[in-house]
Specification:
8 helices, about 240 residues, single chain, about 35% helix
Length: about 240
């Protein structure tokens, strides 16, 4: 297995000559700054669309990790693979175009609200703020399924045994960002209070889906554990890593 990071290959450019043709590609590189995409749509498109074309040009079967943002969020029941897309943000449109750029020899894996033990993500931000502050304000009018990247990685093993196509792979259960934050603090033993605010009060540039729970209508799709199990597994990983 070969891991390639941004320093070795910016996927917005063609693949470097030294990179040998792989048997399988897990394409996780992406522009993920949702608000930044609103002010730099060209940058988001270059990374998420042109970048995916460059990865697909390697000619190997491709796992493309996509997003709940390809949907409008106006539905009030879980989104299935057959539901029509309708992204409301530049980021969402770029991820949807990236799905198309991945080509027919690909598995499109849509997931949501990803968090992990390393890197920049919501869980790690809340752990830091919860240790620093007496209170945090968190949105309580968006619902989704927080998904631990460790569980998503495990599920990918099963996905690549299936026919090419679109698969919704997200944690079981659902919650709001406020409820997720309260669970983070409870599991981590933090006493920080959580104050509910609305998306409008948060005032971010990019529109967010109000409801983006993903479920698969395909019985062969791997099912992930409940998001609280993912939360506990991630906190255990953070402790092991000394993060």
């Amino acid at each position: 297995m070969t891991g390639v990071d941004l320093a070795e290959w910016d996927v917005a450019d063609p693949a470097p000559a030294w990179l040998e043709a792989p048997d399988l590609v897990l394409h996780a590189a992406a522009w993920t700054d949702v608000d930044g995409a609103e002010t730099d749509p060209g940058g988001a498109e270059k990374a998420n669309v042109a970048g995916t074309r460059n990865v697909a040009a390697l000619g190997a079967p491709l796992v493309y990790y996509s997003s709940d943002y390809v949907f409008s969020g106006t539905k009030r029941e879980p989104y299935l693979e057959s539901d029509p897309t309708g992204p409301a943000s530049v980021y969402g449109r770029s991820k949807l175009e990236g799905e198309r750029a991945a080509g027919e020899v690909s598995w499109i894996v849509r997931s949501s609200w990803l968090f992990g033990a390393t890197g920049h993500n919501f869980l790690r931000t809340m752990l830091r703020l919860g240790a620093e502050r007496d209170e945090v304000a968190v949105v309580d009018d968006q619902r989704g399924c927080p998904t631990y990247v460790g569980h998503l990685a495990e599920a990918t093993h099963g996905i690549v045994e299936l026919p090419f196509g679109i698969y919704h792979v997200a944690a079981g259960g659902e919650c709001t960002w406020k409820e997720f934050t309260e669970a983070i603090f409870e599991e981590a033993g933090l006493t920080c209070r959580v104050r509910a605010i609305t998306t409008a009060e948060l005032g971010r540039p990019a529109p967010r889906p109000a409801y983006s729970v993903l479920r698969s209508e395909k019985p062969e799709t791997p099912r992930l554990p409940h998001w609280r199990e993912g939360l506990r597994a991630c906190l255990d990983e953070i402790e092991r890593l000394g993060q």
